Amino acid sequence: MRRCLAFAIALISWPAAADMRPTPSVDAGLATPQSFGAAGDGATDDTLAIDAWLNSGRPLTCSGSFRIDRPVEVSVPLSRGLALQGTGRHGCRVILSGTARIEIKGSLPAGSDLSANARHGASQIVIRDLGIEPAYAMSGEQPSPRENAAISVSYPGASTGNPAGWTDPMVVIDNLSILPADTSKPTYAHYGLYLANVSNADIANVTCEGFRGGPIGPGSACIVCDGDASPVDTTIRNARAYFVESGIKLSGTWQGVHIYTPTIVAARVGIDVSAADNDSTLLEISGGEINVSDVPIQIRNTTRTFIHDVHLNLIGASTRPDPACIKIAMTSGANPLFSVHDNICETYQGAAAAGLKYGIQVSSARPTSLQHTTGFIHGNLFSNAGNVDNAFIPIHLGPGTSDITIGCNKYLRARTADGSVWNVQNETATPEPRLLNSVSCKSERLPSGPSSGAQ
User: How far apart (Å, rounded) are the C-alpha atoms in residues 206 and 132?
Assistant: First the structure.
């Protein structure tokens, strides 16, 4: 009797137990592309499977190579988020074919407030250890920035119905490789990673490489940040960019951006920063090495800028008549402050390059009533390491600049076109720049930025 009862209980309970047996991906709590029908062999069109996988709302992981032939749009509502843990560039790779790309769009209802989540360290979008292979055969710039990027992350901006300062979404991207399999061919993607209206972002270890076999793609960039409400409190660490027009581009309206230890090689511009409203503030660039032909660091219309401990090199033939290691330009807005200290600026450009080169060039086109630029240029090394017959002026202060303190810099092989030596060239800057002597160099403390260096 007991045996019959036990057998009956087991028979009744068996179907329910069988229904609960998870597939391997469910058992791990993670969804894989294969669980949505992907082949993962790098040759089969896996577009539908990748679309379903990315939009599944489950924690994601992947192993394999997945070709997509069309753009994939990922909708990430506030209530769900996106978490993708790959297995590295070669372990988890998405191959873009034709005009394929990945567009991740955060969906935030009007009036949403993620500040509580941000304070507790919650991340709405997390992508780690992913490889993307851009498509070949660049066919010209596309209508929107998202369509120019291999992968993009965007949120609605203030101009689309959300009030300014509406959210504090967190985006974490770590170890993202955007590298073509064959760098001797031009690629379709103009941008590697494009971020629009993204705040509280931690972007680390993003690597991009462009076209080695010919001219640099016009407008190409590794990381682009844009928008009318971004980025706020964003950190970009250990970015690596090769053979693109710009390594990192930052535009729009933003507050609090920190760029640590970038490596940018064989580009035209290393870091290109432009504020749309002149109210963008607090930019820090610290550490790293930038080897480009035109301008390693170019800053326009920021109100607080700190550049320190960066090794800057001008190499190759410049496309500009006046290449410089650092260019800082102001047009209007609040009284700007900048501090440039403890950097190395070297130029290796030969006689075939532009005839006049600068270490740091500061200019201002602000109205007379607004002309008040506070600047510190301190403890830098400026070296004309290339053809010494080329003119090289370490510090150039253009018209409209004022209240500049200069000291403790070292100058090697500085000379003007007529052969005279000018370490500092001043054009109508009033009052005259304050020059520190050797005693002041040891005793005076100058603004060094919000942090003590690269993190």
Answer: 11
> Strand pairing partners for 200?
none
> Using CA atoms, how far apart are residues 34 and 131, in angstroms rounded to an integer?
17
Q: What is the DSSP letter of 175?
A: E
Confirm or reject CATH 3.40.1390 for domain 25-274, answering yes or no: no
pLDDT per residue, tens digit, the chain (455 aa), is 444 444 333 333 333 333 332 233 334 578 999 999 999 999 999 999 999 999 999 999 999 999 999 999 999 886 778 999 998 778 899 999 888 999 999 876 555 555 444 444 445 899 999 999 987 654 555 556 677 889 999 887 654 444 444 445 678 999 999 998 877 666 656 789 999 888 788 999 999 998 777 677 778 899 998 876 656 788 999 999 999 899 999 987 778 899 999 999 999 999 999 876 656 778 999 999 999 989 999 998 888 899 999 999 988 778 888 889 999 987 665 667 889 999 999 887 654 444 568 899 988 766 554 556 788 999 999 988 765 556 778 898 887 777 788 888 888 776 655 555 567 777 755 566 777 655 455 444 444 445 433 33
Q: Give the residue from 90, 111, 201 showing the smallest Cα distance to 152.
A: 201
Q: Which two tokens stand for residue 228?
A: 């009318």
Give every CB contact of residue 388 below 8 A, 6+ residues apart in sequence. 413, 415
Distances (CA, A) of 120 to 57, 114, 124, 164: 22, 10, 12, 22
Q: Alpha-carbon distance 269 to 210, whole Å?
A: 14
φ, ψ (nearest 5 deg) of residue 17: -65, -40
Distance between CA atoms of 440 and 61, rounded to whole angstroms? Answer: 57
What residue ranges of the chain are covered by domains with CATH 2.160.20?
25-274
